[in-house]
Amino acid sequence: MFPVVKVSVTGLDPQAMYSVLLEFVQIDPHRWKYVNGEWVPGGKAEVPPPNPIYMHPESPNFGAHWMKEPVSFAKVKLTNKTNGNGQVSEVKNEVFQR
């Protein structure tokens, strides 16, 4: 994904296990395309998938692990082709304790 999502995490219990996930929420009813230097609507978007969540590949892990450096989602790819995980429009990051 460009730009890469990086999140600094604080306040976790260093010995507790946590999973870090991205939840994707479609906020617009359109596909978008880049034309002549600007983004323009490019048709209707597909129905969003029922579970648009991406779990960080290092999950679950200890709180100390998540707090030592920013958590990077460099391998997340946005697409308009569905592959079981669906397409995405906006990223919302959350931390869940196990």
From TrEMBL:
GO terms for cellular component: chromatin; nucleus. The keyword DNA-binding applies. It comes from the Eukaryota. InterPro entries: p53-like_TF_DNA-bd_sf (IPR008967), T-box_DNA-bd (IPR046360), T-box_sf (IPR036960), TF_T-box (IPR001699), TF_T-box_CS (IPR018186). GO terms for molecular function: DNA-binding transcription factor activity, RNA polymerase II-specific; RNA polymerase II cis-regulatory region sequence-specific DNA binding. SMART domains: TBOX. GO terms for biological process: cell fate specification; heart morphogenesis; mesoderm formation; positive regulation of DNA-templated transcription. Residues 1-98 form the T-box domain. It is found in: Nucleus. Keywords: DNA-binding, Nucleus, Transcription, Transcription regulation. PANTHER family: T-BOX PROTEIN-RELATED, T-RELATED PROTEIN. This is T-related protein. It comes from Zootermopsis nevadensis.
